[in-house]
Write the structure tokens for this entry.
Amino acid sequence: MAISTIVDHPSAIFEILGRSLPTMVGFFVSLLMTKTLAGLPLVMLRIPALIQKFLVRILFRQKFLTQRELEAVYKKESLQSGEEYPNQLLVIVICFTYACISPIILPIGALYFLAALVVYKKQVLLVYAPEYESGGSMVSS
């Protein structure tokens, strides 16, 4: 419907967007609430690591595993910034886009970032290990 109208009347694109964007705020509010109440707890659970440790305990006796095998199971993870940063940027874009159209999204976005601050601060301090450590030195080549 909207595509055919835009093809027939390209100058009406802003009018169509002006009518359709405010009706989508309900979807994005529910998306942010879902990311807050379901997505962030899943980040804290770390499902793949949880499954790996559970399977090692169920399938193997730890006294028969070598130290290298145990260290591989219990090693600290690194922060997967390619997966984490786009999620945060999506929320920022949604909040900035709908802030002037429907300001009700701003408190929900603020609650998301407050919960994300708590979750990721805990994860960075206690769970993730830095991949690259320079010890504060800056070496020029």
